[in-house]
Sequence to fold (224 residues):
Amino acid sequence: MKILVVEDEKKIASFVRKGIEAQGFAVDVSGSGDEGFLLATTRPYDALVLDIMLPGKDGLSILRNLRQRKVPVPVILLTARSELNERLEGLNLGADDYLTKPFHIEELIARLHAVVRRAAGTSQSILAVDDLTMNLLTREVRRGQRALELTPREFLLLEHLMRSPGRVLTRIEICERVWDYNFDPGTNLVDVYVQRLRKKVDGDFPVKLIETIRGVGYRIRPVN
Ligand code: CA
Fold:
């Protein structure tokens, strides 16, 4: 999952970044409305955390312009207590949720999970491919009866693969979605992680689910 945070208060931006990263999500942070808008319209994000008062374009203008351009990305507004009118306007403009400062990071994380799940249209919390299942709420992963222990990054990588069975994810896509890195073709980071994940998911099981598409990337084998 990749989140864009547009917030000019450095302390809040940094605590939000740390909290989101601790979940194993990738995060971009921008302190300027203009840059934030540019990022939101040119890069794929799973959700935006948007402050209202910003240098450059303000949060509500960003939201209005995104919705005018039919960018459907879920948006959580950060508002001050005094900004009641802005909050209402934000919800009218198509914000998915809002949080009033100060807030607990756990609260923001829970809201992020909720808006992303809603946006994905997956009210169900379990992903399944063949006998491999992933519970997004409890974060349990099972292959048949066996529980698999995954690190947060491995979980995220597998989640991306399982969300679109059969679709090949390129190394670039994986790198951008699972890590916050611009792809460096010299690195074998993705391959190393996929091998690690494959050991746990496919290991000694007779049916192998994770497939390498040579020179392109990886996919989870579709059922049948
Ligand atoms: Ca601000």
